[in-house]
Every structure is written in structure tokens, then in C-alpha cells.
């Protein structure tokens, strides 16, 4: 196993780990957004979706554990790389001009931690209900009583202007991270040569627009009381 | 034209450095940047002062000796141009320029604008060779090389190891250099036997030298005077990953240099 340790600690291996864990999180984000689009069909559909997932612990728990591991590996690889790169240029330039880096690429180290904070807040509000003013469970049988009322809980938070705006802003910052992340992922995994650079960028834009667009539309619709 | 230069002066590896201001007058458009510095150094020498140390050799853009930061860019403002090939017509009268050495912990400053790029040599030693059987010379053309592979290999072989990629990278990474050296040999049938060892050993040596990681800013490829493509890094990542995850993970060290 020592080779795995060598690999994961190397600058290239750590980036591959960031890319693979990033890919797993992309998968989750797409599914999460798609599931939440059900708010537009109304409380019954959205809550039923929650109930459906709740009845599949053999799917939910491995996914949750996998995601936590992915996030931990993503963060640790980043900390390792950041420490190395800080040591690689201890004395900064007096004058430095960039030719290629973008807003997205330069802010990755800031948008990442912001997303982590947003994730914690989001989980405390809508998964555990700790930060929720009026966390509800579904009514019906025993399983229903054990399943959060996803629709009511979500609407209760996002219809408050400050929270609604907070969610939208965090999603836009998420978009900055995802756009560069998806592009870097394609390149780190060796999927794109220089001729396909445009393809990698387009793919990144498409995935990011889908995830962030979907999330923002949901939050905005609840904020504007179109969905209530 | 008349210029003001702010040059990083540092007596040795461990000495503290600082910028010093020098006016340079009557600079001709046709001079190269290094010729302009030669004029400054003549003057400094005549005044009994220490001339500005900078590295140079061919002055034709092919040896990779020259290179420092001119106003925040390695080799200055012209794309695909080494500082020895940079002409003063790229500047205008009254410009004030900052000249700094390439800054990376793996490139210790020797004096003024001169840095020690021995780290690059050690990366090449780790895998930049091919095994050739001794004995009678092989038949000419007995190893066919596809045209596309030859071209791609040649593009990477154009690397002159000047260090501009490291200097431009916000992370101080040597990915573009290392990947060019890996691709140069890995794309050819002659490089095939050591292909995966090469990628592994060169990347590990690069890490050992203390270079940073790639976050795909793309600064290196823009700064490269030889136009080494960013895709080389993607290729190296692939080869390193395959070498480590799918192939036998044994790293052989240096037993291939026949
Ligand atoms: S002096 Fe040889 S490349 Fe500039």
C-alpha cells in the first residue's frame, strides 16, 4: 500500500484525488438539484421523493458516507498541495502580471471554504433541523413520521428574504468553484488535449449552469412565493 | 529612449537583496534587452561599481540560459520570446521597469538575476534517458515513428529548460517543464520501455525539489518562450496515474540508463 501513499502525497496524485472526489460531488449535486426541482410539482411530490429516499437506507447511507469521505479527501489533498505551493514560492514578486489565470481559477481557495460553511449551515437547517425554526415531519404511518417534511421545511427557510438571498449568493459562489473545478477535472484526468480545451470549457459551463441554474431557480421561486 | 530600471541586487545565496534604481539613457530600438544591460554594466564597471549579474549564452533563444522577470513577466512582455531575443522596441521612452530573478525555493538566487536551476537537471537525470542496446548499430529506419507522434514529440523537445514556466506559475510548479521532458520521450517508440518509470521518477523528483502543484491557471504555457502546450501536463498526469494505479508500482530508480 505504500505506493498508494506515495501516489496520494505526490503533487499529481493529490490532484487526481481532488478530481475524482470532485467528480463524485458533481454527481451528487446534479441528483440533489434534480430531486429538488420537484418543488414545482408541489408538496406531495417533493415530500414523496423524500419518503422514497428515506425508504432506501441501503442507498442513502453508503452515499452519505462516500460523500463525507470524498469531502475529507478533497480538503486534505488541497491542504497538502497548498502547503507545498506556498513553500515553493516563499518570497513573492514585487510586480507580477497574469496572462491566463481567471477569476474562477484564482478564487478556488476562497470559494471552497465558503462552500464548506454553506454546506454545514444547509445540513443543520434542512437535514438535522438544528437551525430550523419549525422543523416538521411528514404525517401518515410510522415511516412518514420518521421522514422530514422536505417541502414545508425548505419553503420555511427559503421564503425568508435573508436566507433566500444567502442561498442564492452561496450558489453563485458555488458556480465559480464548479466552473473551474470541472475544467480542471477534465485536464487533471488527462481527458483533454489542447484541441479539446474548448470542449472541456463548454462541458464545465454546461454542468455548472445546470446545477447552479436549477438551484437558483428553486430558491428564487420560493423567495418570490411562486412556490409556497 | 531613456529608461529607469529597478534591478534586484543580491550579493549571494544567503545575502539579503533589494531593488536598486538605475537610469539608462540613449537606448536604441534595435538593441536586445541584454545588450541594453551590457551598456548599463559597462557604465557601472567604469564607475567602479559591481555590474548586474544575469545569465546568458547563445543570445539566439535556443540555449535557455537567459531569463528573469521584466515587470512581472518571465522574459518580458513579448509572447514566445526569450529575453535575449526581446528587443527594446517593445518598450517606450520613459518606461520604468522592475527586473527580478525567477522566484522559487527550488531556484535559489546565486547573484542578482541569476538563479540556480540545477533542480531541472536532477529531474532530467531521474528519467530523461532512453535505453539503447550496445552492439552493432541497428538498421536505419528500423523503428518507424508515426508522423503525428514525431511532431508532438518535437513540440515538447523544443523546451529549453529556461524556467519561465516555474517563474510564471502562481504555485511555483515545474509541471510544464517536467511534462515536456516526459512527453518528448514517452511519445516515441524509443522511449516506450521506460515510459511509466519515467513519468513516475520524474514527477517524484520534481516533488522532491520542492516545486508546487498545478491548478490549471495556464500561466506557464502563456509564458513559455517555446510554446509547450498545456496538454503536456494532462498527458503526464495520465501516465503517472496509470503507472501508479494500474501498472506495477515498483519504481526502479536509475537502472535504465544504458
Ligand atoms: S541566451 Fe540562450 S536562450 Fe537566451
Q: Approximately how much beta-strand content do the residues of chain A carry? A: under 5%
Biggest beta-sheet profile of chain B? 5 strands, mixed
The helix content of chain B is: 25-40%
Give the N-terminus to C-terminus distance of chain A in angstroms: 53 Å
Q: Percentage of helical residues of chain A?
A: over 70%
> SSE order of chain A, as H and E?
HHHHHHHHHH
Number of strands of chain A: 0
- The count of DSSP E runs of length 2 or more, i.e. the number of strands of chain B, is 7
Mean pLDDT over the full residue set of chain B: 93
Number of domains of chain B: 2
- Bound chemical compounds: FE2/S2 (inorganic) cluster
Assign the structural class of chain A, choosing from mainly alpha, mainly beta, alpha/beta, alpha+beta, or little secondary structure.
mainly alpha
Number of separate helices of chain A: 10
Describe this structure in words.
The complex is a heterodimer of chains A (228) and B (258). Chain A is mostly helical and 228 residues long. Helices cover 74% and strands 0% of the residues of chain A. Chain A has helices spanning 2-9, 11-36, 43-54, 57-88, 103-106, 108-126, 142-145, 150-158, 161-188, 197-223. The radius of gyration of chain A is 20 Å and the shape is globular. Chain B is of the alpha+beta class. In chain B, a hairpin with a 2-residue loop joins strand 6 and strand 7. The radius of gyration of chain B is 21 Å and the shape is elongated. Classes of the chains: A mainly alpha (228), B alpha+beta (258). Chains A and B meet through helix 1, helix 2, helix 4 and helix 9 of A and helix 6, helix 7 and helix 8 of B.
Amino acid at each position: 500500500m505504500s505506493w498508494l501513499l506515495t501516489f496520494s502525497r505526490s503533487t499529481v496524485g493529490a490532484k487526481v484525488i481532488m478530481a475524482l472526489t470532485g467528480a463524485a460531488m458533481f454527481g451528487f449535486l446534479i441528483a440533489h438539484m434534480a430531486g429538488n426541482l420537484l418543488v414545482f410539482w408541489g408538496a406531495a411530490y417533493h415530500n414523496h421523493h423524500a419518503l422514497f429516499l428515506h425508504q432506501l437506507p441501503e442507498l442513502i447511507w453508503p452515499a452519505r458516507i462516500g460523500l463525507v469521505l470524498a469531502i475529507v479527501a478533497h480538503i486534505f489533498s488541497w491542504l497538502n498541495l497548498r502547503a507545498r505551493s506556498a513553500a515553493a514560492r516563499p518570497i513573492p514578486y514585487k510586480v507580477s502580471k497574469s496572462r491566463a489565470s481567471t477569476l474562477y481559477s484564482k478564487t478556488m481557495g476562497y470559494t471552497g471554504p465558503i462552500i464548506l460553511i454553506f454546506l454545514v449551515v444547509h445540513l443543520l437547517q434542512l437535514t438535522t433541523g438544528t437551525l430550523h425554526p419549525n422543523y416538521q415531519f411528514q404525517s401518515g404511518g410510522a415511516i412518514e413520521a420518521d421522514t422530514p417534511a422536505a417541502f414545508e421545511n425548505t419553503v420555511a427557510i427559503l421564503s425568508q428574504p435573508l436566507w433566500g438571498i444567502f442561498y442564492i449568493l452561496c450558489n453563485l459562489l458555488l458556480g465559480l468553484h464548479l466552473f473551474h473545478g470541472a475544467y480542471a477535472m477534465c485536464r487533471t484526468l488527462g481527458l483533454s488535449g489542447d484541441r479539446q480545451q474548448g470542449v472541456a470549457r463548454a462541458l464545465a459551463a454546461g454542468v455548472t449552469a445546470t446545477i447552479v441554474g436549477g438551484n437558483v431557480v428553486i430558491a428564487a421561486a420560493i423567495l418570490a412565493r411562486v412556490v409556497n | 529612449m531613456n529608461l529607469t530600471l529597478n534591478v534586484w541586487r543580491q550579493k549571494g545565496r544567503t545575502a539579503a537583496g533589494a531593488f536598486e534604481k538605475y537610469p539608462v539613457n540613449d537606448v536604441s530600438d534595435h538593441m536586445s534587452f541584454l545588450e541594453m544591460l551590457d551598456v548599463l554594466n559597462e557604465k557601472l564597471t567604469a564607475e567602479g561599481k559591481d555590474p548586474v549579474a544575469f545569465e546568458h549564452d547563445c543570445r539566439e533563444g535556443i540555449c535557455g540560459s537567459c531569463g528573469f522577470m521584466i515587470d512581472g513577466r518571465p522574459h518580458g512582455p513579448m509572447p514566445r520570446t526569450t529575453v535575449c531575443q526581446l528587443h527594446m522596441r517593445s518598450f517606450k521612452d520613459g518606461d520604468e521597469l522592475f527586473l527580478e530573478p525567477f522566484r522559487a525555493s527550488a531556484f535559489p538566487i546565486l547573484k542578482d538575476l541569476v538563479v540556480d536551476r540545477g533542480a531541472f537537471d536532477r529531474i532530467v537525470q531521474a528519467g530523461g534517458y532512453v535505453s539503447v542496446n550496445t552492439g552493432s548499430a541497428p538498421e536505419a529506419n528500423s523503428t518507424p515513428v508515426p508522423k503525428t507522434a514525431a511532431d508532438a514529440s518535437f513540440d515538447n523537445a523544443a523546451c529549453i529548460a529556461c524556467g519561465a514556466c516555474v517563474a510564471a506559475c502562481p504555485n511555483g510548479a515545474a509541471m510544464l517543464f517536467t511534462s515536456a521532458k516526459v512527453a518528448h520521450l514517452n511519445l516515441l517508440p524509443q522511449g516506450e520501455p521506460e515510459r511509466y518509470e519515467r513519468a513516475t521518477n520524474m514527477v517524484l523528483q520534481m516533488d522532491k525539489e520542492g516545486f508546487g502543484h498545478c491548478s490549471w491557471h495556464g500561466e506557464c504555457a502563456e509564458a513559455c518562450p517555446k510554446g509547450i502546450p498545456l496538454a503536456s501536463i494532462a498527458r503526464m498526469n495520465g501516465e503517472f496515474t496509470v503507472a501508479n494505479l494500474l501498472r506495477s508500482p515498483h519504481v526502479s530508480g536509475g537502472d535504465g540508463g544504458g
